[in-house]
Amino acid sequence: MVTRLLATKLYPEFIKIPVSRRRLVETTQGFQELTSLPNVCGAIDTTPVKLHKISPDMINGSMYVCKYGFPSVLLQVVADHKKIFWDVCVKAPGGYDDATHFRDSLLYNRLISGDIVWDKAVSVRGQPVRPYIVGGGVFRCCHFCLHHIVIIGLEIRHRMHLMRR
Q1: Which top-rank group of organisms is this from (predicted)?
Q2: What stretches in the chain show pLDDT beneath 70?
């Protein structure tokens, strides 16, 4: 009952993807002030949430054992520059990897299908760059998500370019 209330009443009211122009600009500017990276609109990460009990008759109960060795489900969140969640997904057993959980999420499917379109492109070295999400190394690069290794490389190149001026 509590879960249903959270999912049907509270989630739609408080967890919202930044699609309005004003909120998108506020979010990307906030991230740029924090990171010096242009057009970042969110940061994504996944963590296991411990389950205290698993039913003994559960099929494939081992799927719920996470990489840390305890039964769990995966919690995936995307947050803005103020650390306010704008997407939450608790869908996969703890034994799943983060990237698979992301690919199975509604957010990923909406981004791939073009259902969510962020039109605030900025020019980076003459190329238009749409808003994107940053994440850990398990999130593969695609047109809307960069992982931290790519970002670190961009940041180092950007700082070296500024030092040459």
Answers
A1: Eukaryota
A2: 1-14, 56-59, 116-119, 137-165
* The total number of residues written for the chain in this structure: 165
Quote the Cα angle for 37-150-93, to 5°: 105
Rounded CA gap, 130 and 112, in Å? 14
Q: How many CB atoms lie within 10 A of CB 81?
A: 19
Contact of 122 with 129, CB cutoff 8 Å: yes
127 backbone dihedrals φ, ψ, rounded to 5°:
-110, 135
Give the dihedral sign, CA 145/148/149/153: positive
Specify the pTM: 0.75
Model pLDDT for residues 48-92, shown as the tens digit of each residue: 999 887 776 666 778 889 999 999 999 999 999 999 898 898 888
DSSP-derived letter for residue 157 is H
Give Cα separations from 146 to 3, 37, 75, 124, 141 (angstroms).
32, 12, 20, 15, 5
